[in-house]
């Protein structure tokens, strides 16, 4: 048995940030990661079509974007000596409505005046509600009880009888962010999503929320942190049991044991349930995590010989609340002469294509891309799908959220320390909720608290 000041379970961004801050302050830290890699929900993979080396490319199959409000992430990127580049966005965007015909636009969506006015009013209302919320304590919102008792879909329909307006506003929070249908989460959860980005207006502004990418991929952040931590990070170390008290804890990995004064469970709430605790976690803690779940999304990326949409004066950005691929963007790496698109198939649509064969799923998804960009979109050089629901240690994307009533009932419990135990991940962040920025903020907060109480 080895003894440490702090053991961190999970080598995602939250865990590595916590460990890096503690190690930098002189504390003895050990990170235990069940996977054979670091990074959690951040991962870059190299793919090629038919094993042709000249068609190979790196694809970010997890999170990838950085926005101007994500100051914790931007600060860490700078601290680690990494660089960013802007997402390509010159030209017209595309909107596909119920008719299935792509319409070019810049600025506001090309919908009727009535629908545009309805979207504007819903946006104003959501901005107002988000402005009243501390995203770190959403259950304290003045109208939290009511907002958490009604689904976001029902809330929208109570305020607006324009179906297309409701469908578009629902898309930005449901399929695009929480990756659940809008009837499956509360209006309070939707307001939290908006407040965590500064406003609903920020959340729906693709030029803001999807501003930049990191050279080498966003997974470069956890890799750089792990490099600095060195042999403090142990991979393929799947924690099965944590024995804990107010004074310390013993962590079991197979037949190995590790002792620490503090243990940080830096994994999603749903993954905490994989670990046995002795004594058992209090019922409220267990139930809080039972009421959390991941959404479902298939991230689709296609590489082409050239960014042919740019030749048509298109930015590569497209939205279609009724399309299989509900949003799509130019995802071309900086300096690459080829063209890359990234799109998303979410919630109920993800269920449906998940039941199809791989070939049928590919054909249907490429057909949806062709709705936006024409027949050339059907013939990529490389086609890559990432579907995190098939990975036991994640189970979905992009983060966990509560069912109706869960946020007010259990939200405060998820971050509550227990004796020697701390819990945290991007899933329980305020600002940066569900994003790498939130993971860093949570890691910094936990490390700061422990540095004040842990002496090397």
Automatic annotation (TrEMBL):
Cofactor(s) required, per the database record: FAD
Keywords assigned by UniProt, alphabetized: Oxidoreductase
Matching InterPro entries: Amino_oxidase, FAD/NAD-bd_sf, Flavin_amine_oxidase, Flavin_MAO
Matching Pfam families: Amino_oxidase
Domain Amine oxidase as annotated: residue spans: 14-450
Protein family (similarity comment): Belongs to the flavin monoamine oxidase family.
PANTHER family with a match to the protein in the record: AMINE OXIDASE (PTHR43563), AMINE OXIDASE [FLAVIN-CONTAINING] B (PTHR43563:SF1)
Protein name per its UniProtKB record: NAD(P)/FAD-dependent oxidoreductase
Lineage: Bacteria, Bacillati, Actinomycetota, Actinomycetes, Propionibacteriales
């Amino acid at each position: 048995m080895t003894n440490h000041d702090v053991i961190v379970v999970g080598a995602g961004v939250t865990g590595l940030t916590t460990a890096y801050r503690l190690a930098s302050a002189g504390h003895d830290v050990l990170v235990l990661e069940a996977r054979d890699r670091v990074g959690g929900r951040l991962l870059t993979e190299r793919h090629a079509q038919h094993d042709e080396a000249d068609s190979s490319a790196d694809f970010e199959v997890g999170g990838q974007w950085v926005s101007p409000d994500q100051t914790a992430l931007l600060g860490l990127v700078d601290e680690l000596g990494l660089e960013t580049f802007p997402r390509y966005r010159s030209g017209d965007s595309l909107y596909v409505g119920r008719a299935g015909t792509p319409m070019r636009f810049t600025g506001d969506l090309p919908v009727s005046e009535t629908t545009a006015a309805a979207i504007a009013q819903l946006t104003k209302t959501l901005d107002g509600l988000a402005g009243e919320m501390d995203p770190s304590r959403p259950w304290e919102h003045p109208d939290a009880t009511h907002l958490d008792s009604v689904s976001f879909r029902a809330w929208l329909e109570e305020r607006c009888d324009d179906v297309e307006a409701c469908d578009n506003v629902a898309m930005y929070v449901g399929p695009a962010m929480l990756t659940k249908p809008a009837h499956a989460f509360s209006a309070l959860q939707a307001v939290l999503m908006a407040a965590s980005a500064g406003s609903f207006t920020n959340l729906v502004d693709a030029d803001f929320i999807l501003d930049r990418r990191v050279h080498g991929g966003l997974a470069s952040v956890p890799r750089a942190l792990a490099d600095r931590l060195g042999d403090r990070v142990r991979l393929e170390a799947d924690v099965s049991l944590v024995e804990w008290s107010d004074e310390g804890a013993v962590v079991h990995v197979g037949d190995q044991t590790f002792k620490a004064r503090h243990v940080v469970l830096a994994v999603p709430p749903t993954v905490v349930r994989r670990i046995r605790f002795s004594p058992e976690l209090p019922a409220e803690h267990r139930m809080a995590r039972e009421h959390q779940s991941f959404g479902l999304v298939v991230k689709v990326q296609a590489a082409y010989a050239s960014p042919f949409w740019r030749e048509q004066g298109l930015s590569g950005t497209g939205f279609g609340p009724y399309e299989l691929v509900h949003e799509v963007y130019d995802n071309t790496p900086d300096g690459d002469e080829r063209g890359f698109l990234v799109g998303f198939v979410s919630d109920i649509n993800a269920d449906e294509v998940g039941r199809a064969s791989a070939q049928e799923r590919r054909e249907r998804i490429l057909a949806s891309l062709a709705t936006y960009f024409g027949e050339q979109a059907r013939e990529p050089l490389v086609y890559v799908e990432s579907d995190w629901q098939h990975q036991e240690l994640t189970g979905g994307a992009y983060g966990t959220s509560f069912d109706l009533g869960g946020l007010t009932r259990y939200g405060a419990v998820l971050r509550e320390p227990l004796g020697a135990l701390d819990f945290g991940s991007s899933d329980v962040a305020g600002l940066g909720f569900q994003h790498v920025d939130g993971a860093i903020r949570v890691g910094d907060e936990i490390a700061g608290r422990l540095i004040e109480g842990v002496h090397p």
